[in-house]
UniProtKB/TrEMBL annotation:
Residues 15-126 form the Glyoxalase/fosfomycin resistance/dioxygenase domain. This is VOC family protein. The lineage of its organism: Bacteria, Bacillati, Actinomycetota, Actinomycetes, Micrococcales. It comes from the Bacteria. Pfam families: Glyoxalase. It comes from Cellulomonas aerilata.
Length: 136
């Protein structure tokens, strides 16, 4: 790992979130339950540690327990600028918007770049974009 990797603490939705992100980004998903880790501070099937592997996006997540606050996204975007071919980025944008909210539709800007913003169903705010020729 050569860069910071987000680690989300989610309100009992880590399994669903990581599975969703794995499907969106074409990653494998590793999930480890509280029971596997010998934890008794939450439901046995809750996710103690999970992550995406073998794909273009790195992300960790776990379910919170007790009074631990879950992830909330304000003033932060996860940028996927030029991280793949334009057709792939367009697909990611569409998939991230499923059950979420488009903040700013994916569009070509006056300076020539194409980008847009979406808050997905798990509350992550994404900036998706590319420069250059669109390969639709």
């Amino acid at each position: 790992m050569t860069a910071p990797t987000p680690y989300l603490h989610l309100p009992g939705t880590a399994r669903d979130a990581l599975t969703f992100y794995g499907e969106v980004f074409g990653c494998a998903v590793q999930l480890h339950t509280f029971e596997e880790f010998g934890r008794t501070d939450g439901p046995p099937d809750a996710i103690a540690h999970g992550y995406l592997v073998e794909g273009p996006v790195e992300l960790f997540a776990a379910d919170v327990t007790g009074d631990d606050p879950p992830f909330r996204c304000e003033g932060l975007m996860f940028a996927l600028l030029g991280t793949s071919a334009p057709s792939v980025l367009r697909s990611w944008f569409r998939r991230l918007a499923e059950g979420g909210r488009v903040v700013d539709d994916l569009q070509t800007r006056p300076w020539g770049a194409t980008d847009g913003q979406v808050v997905d169903r798990h509350g992550l705010h994404w900036l998706v974009g590319f420069e250059g020729q669109d390969d639709r």
